[in-house]
Model the fold of this input.
Amino acid sequence: MFKKILIANRGEIACRVAATARRLGIKTVAVYSEADANARHVAVCDEAVLLGPAAAKESYLRGDKIIAVAKATGAEAIHPGYGFLSENAEFADACHEAGLVFIGPPASAMRAMGSKSAAKSLMEKASVPLVPGYHGDNQDADFLQTQADRIGYPVLLKASAGGGGKGMRVVESSEAFRDALASCKREAISSFGDDKVLAEKYLQRPRHIEIQVFADTHGNCIHLFERDCSVQRRHQKVLEEAPAPGMTAERRAAMGEAAVAAAKAVGYVGAGTVEFIANQDGSFYFMEMNTRLQVEHPVTEMITGADLVEWQLRVAAGEPLPKKQHELAINGHAIEARVYAENPEKGFLPSIGTLRHLGTPDAVNFELGGIPGHPAGVRIDAGVREGDAISPFYDPMIAKLIVWGADRKQALARMAQALSQYQIVGLASNIAFLNRLVQGEAFATADLDTGLIERNHDALFPAAQPAASGALALAAVALIEAEKDRSAAQSGANAADPWGQALGWRMNQPYVRKLSFADDYAAGLPSKAYGVEVTYLNDGWMFNLSGSEASPQLLTLMSQQGADISVKLGDTAVHGSVRRDGELFHVFTNGLHYTLHYNDPMAHAGESEAEGGRLTAPMPGKVVAVLAEKGKEVKKGDALVIMEAMKMEHTIAAPHDGVVDDVLYAVGDQVADGAPLLAFRAA
Ligand code: MV4
Done:
């Protein structure tokens, strides 16, 4: 076995690989970019070497530098993780030439699977089932149209060099064929530099089912069952699970055999995934092979008890596979959800910023094999910690949340519970979206196919709901109790003096206080204001939501432990946690996350009470255009400032008719998340 390896990656997968290496007593070398100097993967490795600037091209994709670092640090092998250099055959060759082991398949196997049409020819010879279609060299338009007519419409055109859904066109009829072919070829040449296409029968509601395969250098090749990754959004996987619901033992054996045949046909070694699309009737067809360890590998680990990274290391070191096919069995059910810093309400726009607070469900990290016995059955693979930043340079994944259950139902319940316990402050996340998804009818009943998210759009993106009175009550109590703490600290020795404290205590008359909260307008949702009237009593408050039908209710504090608060509102017990971040109150209760702006009358004392107030940056980015002029009148909806973030433009528009009193940034300026851009006065 190796004594030292270099991990040519970042984030959760670098941490994941390091965890197994550590368990096996193997030293690790991290590499990092300037943006990642304080990243978790740097902290968990034994040593770390800077590669260069943040851009992947200048750091994680610099194969030459990475090989030089491996040589200089005495690493014997390089683990590429996924993405970056993991499927780069030239890099694998270069490792070999430098006397280093590339922990992955032979470069020849990567090349054989790199071209879709060439791979399909190979698979055909190996008797791996293919979607009826044409994948030959003849690219004559008349000829291809004849092939499409023979296959029968709808037909799917795919760029041979493509992948991940790029360069695909559905053709509904022979009449539409020519235009679709021309447009597919245009996209193929501009995206991949190769306009070769293939034509296939288009399957209407396919499932994405993939088989984990493993081969060693001793001629052994086995599979570790399937994963169902049908729940995707724009070819990005969202949920993955193993085993696939509805899979029969016969079909599992047939798919496993086909996958092993596919791997053997290209002389595969190491961890690989053979991707199939399956019809609702269960028939399945080879799509492509991923020649790397995949993001979703943990669900396979959870049901087999195998540590796939350990297997990769053993195979790369020349050892035989730890298990034979007949020694593997499926134990229970596992589901993975990808937790992202993104905003589902804003078209899943990545959310860049700092993880100010990260509260995770009770979980273990990498305790492989032990997870089925773990009371919570929850594993979290993360590359970021509280206080870390999600930068615009890399994939904005926060963590993979993986649950195990004795059956799918239990796994699903644990997933919903774990998602409800996840607390993220400082960034938008897809947590609530994931929770709606796993609890929705379609996923709960395993009515799976690649169109699940689009088909259930209305249920997954419900109209914004007004904040629950329980959430407002928690925010109010958190606010009042924090003032009490502050005032007690200030008054010191005079703590017993009612006059010195902000307890709201008044002689002879009850103290009535009006608190004003509003929904988080930064989420891009219509925002609602809430007037909360709190009347101080001896041992609690009367809580009255102004403008609501409900009559005032007695509010009492039951317990408080840091951010965790329990109150009684009327007859209802309400539990939750409240995290304050400046003017924002993040209330986590009932599995939901409410972001409430507290309109602090003290914070803006002295400022002009401009209605409409300020217009703020929806995310960190650059000002690319300023259309507003100081002192000019504008109409509601007029574009005032255009910002660029994540390669997309965002227009900041006037919320009402009014006057721009000041423009606070110029073109080219970098702006922080939430920064006021303009001073605006409503007419
Ligand atoms: C298909 C298909 C329907 N029929 N091929 C998309 C990415 C690439 N790996 C293969 N893809 C598809 N190929 C035929 N003949 C539908 C898809 C497809 C898809 C496949 C797997 C997972 C998600 C998907 C989402 C849309 C389309």
